[in-house]
Write a structure and sequence with these properties.
The chain is of the alpha/beta class and about 350 residues long. It has a single domain (about 25-340), classed as Alkaline phosphatase D (PhoD) (Purple Acid Phosphatase, chain A, domain 2), CATH 3.60.21.70. The protein has eight helices and 15 strands. Helix 3 (about 70-80) packs parallel to helix 6 (about 115-125). The two termini are about 30 Å apart.
Amino acid sequence: MKKGKTLYAFGLIFFSMCAFAQKKQTIIAFGSCDNQEKPQELWQEIIKQKPVLWIWGGDNIYADTGDTTVLKTMYAKQKSDPGYKQLLKTCPITGTWDDHDYGTNDGGKFWPHRDEFKKFELQFLDIPRNNAVWSRPGIYNSMTYGDGKTKIKVINLDTRYFRDTLVKVYYKPEGSEKKEYKYEVNETGDILGDVQWKWLEDELRNSDAPFFIINSSIQALAEDHRFEKWVNFPKARQRLLDVLAASKKNVLIISGDRHIAEFSKVDLPGANYPLYDFTSSGLTHTWPEKWVEANRYRVGELVIQKNFGIIKIDWGMKDFKVTLQIRGKDNQVFQHQVITFKR
């Protein structure tokens, strides 16, 4: 090769490396459990982090109603909040719903308003009318951000529309007169439904993104608490882990629902990274009092303060590093974890 051509080739390589370096970090923010009637204190904090994408994790409003007129009013109030409107000017959004914007607390597939309520959630999420989600049951959807070596695929699961029944059981804990509830395990029940399971497998298989974010409104890994979680349907939870392991993809799970924040971690068979479930909840309210809650998979401390999640991807030419932060008011970082993924 002649000297001129050699210099030109090296110039192209150098230019490509410089262009890649300019895109070396991607910041994504997410959160859940935002009551439109409560003070919206975190939007400015979120905007300061300069995310390129906001992901709603569910309970995007607190509706718990069967009245579509009331529902529309609640979504309108949430969307007109000045802080949220400012965020919408800075980045696109995506997401899913959970029970309170679905319309009924802890609701599943027998909620009679699920189809009529779907369109209001999709409108709130600004999902275009030509997206396939409008023409199928449920609101499971996906989006891809970025391109090439910095591509991220966000897969928003619907853990409500197809979910089988949970039976709530009331009891008094030993040594207490206070009545509490827990859910009986549904050994054979499902969460996603056959069509959504196939869709999830296809979304993982048919994308060359180096990094995937699975948005599950309810916690996927935690087992020990008595509230809603994937392990209430153990067959479905195991299937989820099997699908992720078989995909051989780099995956992070995010979740909400709980009004607390924490990191849960398990080893995924065949994976060269630990599988994390990053729970961030809630944006406007958390537990009214602190108590001890077991989580055998928790890494770090339980956070019982209003919070949002930050996912920072530092792209490398070979490996890349993902930093997870639980953040709150006044630039506080309550907890953080770092994961290294290989391409």
